[in-house]
């Protein structure tokens, strides 16, 4: 975390850090990073949350005192603009929900990830905050994702698609159809709804924001990561099989380096918790300093571009209009 | 379809074909393929199902007379061992269900696909027959997938995993947990249950059979296909950017050819409909002769290795035991 923060600080010299952790671990490392030390305030915490702790257990034992809780609380008290953690995802979400609470009218938060596409980058949510989502929640995710796209990509009216399968007249997934009908019939400012997209549209970058519920989103993300690793493995094996291939590899090394750079999962590290009264970013636990730096860069961008206000405004305006026009019953009748 | 059948016939010279279609289209092509013509019986059909027809509409208009119906019916009457079609998936499934009916005790059929992995190949189901599946259906899919793995890979006791997300204590997906509990507590002959797997396990080949419901399976499949295309695009762009890279590409061409061959989606073409009283294989509509040939090769393997009997035996033995021991209520109480 600390070397990652130091890298990000070089790119964003105005960032100030509030660090929470065990002093016996943090301070010796911080001493080797004088620029980061000068930009940081450190608070010792006795309790830290283990990666294998269940969210409920983490909340019981770590509330009010653990480094994870303190990090999230710093956003609540206004001491920090964004919280960044590479810890236990479930515990972090539980603490963030408990400490920051969901925004008015938002029932469930989502985790939004950045997906590299052939056209640049898209935002995909939910990639694993909760399982299942009703039509109202999918509409909320659409607005929150669009707000994040406006903050991150600087696009006025990001395109949004609902993830679906290309099979007609199938039973189930009524919530996706319901959400689609609603988005089609109720144009929302700052969001251009483009209909259904399928799994292969993710990599194509067909839309700026792809909306789905957390189970499918998480499986899609991990499947894409797995496929990329699988192909990288094939490529490595193929390039070392004959001396001609090895020679070719050496000649084309700069091209392979560019390819590796393009496929580098560290560059899109950072899941953004959306729908809470504060921004929390989850870095991949298994990444390195470069990956952490990318998550902190993302945190800086989200804070500087006013993500939270954009999400709040979208949701408020939208729900106000809903209350005035009263078509809520059309979205998810079973929940009202 | 016809050049594909001709290629497969060279590899399986004992195959006999019963062809259904429009004579003005089929016969001129068949005349150019004398070996296939000699191995085939042709039946003219006036009606053909369009790719954009809704399943219910296709069934209404194409039942008893369309080429698609006749193809499936040939399996029912015993004239053919397997039906192969590259047509409209939804229509084919609707006709297959109507004509062949689901096996006793099977509520819903599944489509099983072959997934290339770093260790070889796995079977993934359901990749889009129906959306959603309860615990009982997931257990049925596990048995049907294992039976197909026995028939296709010749493994005595294929390993089976349930697709899940690595998030603890999340709401929803109770049916996956329920199915897991059942598979753990009730050892099934010819199937080695290995617990939950995640999206990145698909490409790793962690288990021989990955079980999930049709929405997630379809999204995962298309996401993997999309990611593979995306990386192939990056690779092509990188290898043509500088003359050094182009020279390297030429030297390593045989390695790149092997890679392309390994990633060739045509080699794993063919979705197998499981749970019906007959084998139907769906070829990708957008494939070429090589892809069709792979789907027909798969059909030959499934027929020769007695897939249907293996699935029937597994299901019968299992459901008999369930009836005797009576733990059905433990699987899916809400459906009983």
From TrEMBL, chains A, B:
<keyword id="KW-0012">Acyltransferase</keyword>
<comment type="subunit">
    <text>Homodimer. Probably interacts with PlsY.</text>
</comment>
<dbReference type="GO" id="GO:0043811">
    <property type="term" value="F:phosphate:acyl-[acyl carrier protein] acyltransferase activity"/>
</dbReference>
<protein>
    <recommendedName>
        <fullName>Phosphate acyltransferase</fullName>
        <ecNumber>2.3.1.274</ecNumber>
    </recommendedName>
</protein>
<keyword id="KW-1208">Phospholipid metabolism</keyword>
<keyword id="KW-0808">Transferase</keyword>
<dbReference type="Pfam" id="PF02504">
    <property type="entry name" value="FA_synthesis"/>
</dbReference>
<dbReference type="InterPro" id="IPR003664">
    <property type="entry name" value="FA_synthesis"/>
</dbReference>
<keyword id="KW-0443">Lipid metabolism</keyword>
<keyword id="KW-0444">Lipid biosynthesis</keyword>
<comment type="function">
    <text>Catalyzes the reversible formation of acyl-phosphate (acyl-PO(4)) from acyl-[acyl-carrier-protein] (acyl-ACP). This enzyme utilizes acyl-ACP as fatty acyl donor, but not acyl-CoA.</text>
</comment>
<comment type="pathway">
    <text>Lipid metabolism; phospholipid metabolism.</text>
</comment>
<dbReference type="InterPro" id="IPR012281">
    <property type="entry name" value="Phospholipid_synth_PlsX-like"/>
</dbReference>
<comment type="similarity">
    <text>Belongs to the PlsX family.</text>
</comment>
<dbReference type="GO" id="GO:0008654">
    <property type="term" value="P:phospholipid biosynthetic process"/>
</dbReference>
<keyword id="KW-0963">Cytoplasm</keyword>
<dbReference type="GO" id="GO:0005737">
    <property type="term" value="C:cytoplasm"/>
</dbReference>
<keyword id="KW-0594">Phospholipid biosynthesis</keyword>
<dbReference type="GO" id="GO:0006633">
    <property type="term" value="P:fatty acid biosynthetic process"/>
</dbReference>
């Amino acid at each position: 975390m600390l070397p990652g923060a130091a890298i990000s600080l070089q790119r964003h010299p105005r960032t100030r850090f509030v660090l929470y952790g065990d002093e016996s671990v943090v301070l010796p490392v911080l001493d080797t990073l004088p620029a980061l030390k000068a930009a940081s305030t450190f608070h010792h915490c006795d309790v830290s949350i283990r990666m294998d702790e269940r969210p409920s257990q983490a909340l019981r034992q770590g509330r009010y005192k653990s480094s994870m809780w303190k990090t999230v609380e710093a956003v609540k008290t206004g001491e920090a603009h964004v919280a960044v953690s590479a810890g236990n995802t479930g515990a972090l979400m539980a603490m963030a929900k408990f400490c920051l609470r969901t925004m008015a009218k938002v029932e469930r938060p989502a985790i939004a990830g950045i997906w590299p596409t052939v056209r640049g980058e898209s935002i995909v949510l939910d990639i694993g905050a909760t399982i299942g989502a009703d039509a109202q929640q999918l509409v909320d995710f659409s607005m929150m994702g669009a707000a994040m796209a406006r903050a991150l990509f600087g696009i006025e009216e990001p395109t949004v698609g609902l993830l679906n399968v290309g099979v007609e007249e199938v039973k189930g997934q009524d919530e996706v159809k319901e959400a689609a009908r609603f988005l089609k019939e109720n144009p929302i400012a700052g969001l251009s709804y483009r209909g259904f997209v399928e799994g292969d549209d993710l990599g194509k970058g067909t839309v700026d924001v792809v909306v789905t519920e957390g189970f499918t989103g998480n499986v899609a993300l991990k499947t894409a990561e797995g496929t990329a690793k699988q192909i990288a493995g094939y490529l490595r094996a193929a390039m070392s099989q004959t001396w001609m291939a090895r020679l070719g590899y050496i000649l084309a090394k700069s091209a392979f380096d560019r390819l590796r750079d393009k496929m580098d999962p560290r560059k899109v590290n950072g899941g953004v918790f959306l729908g809470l009264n504060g921004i929390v970013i989850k870095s991949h636990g298994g990444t390195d300093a470069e990956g952490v730096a990318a998550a902190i860069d993302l945190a800086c961008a989200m804070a500087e571009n006013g993500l939270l206000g954009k999400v709040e405004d979208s949701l408020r305006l939208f729900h106000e209009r809903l209350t005035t026009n009263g078509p809520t019953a059309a979205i998810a009748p079973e929940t009202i």
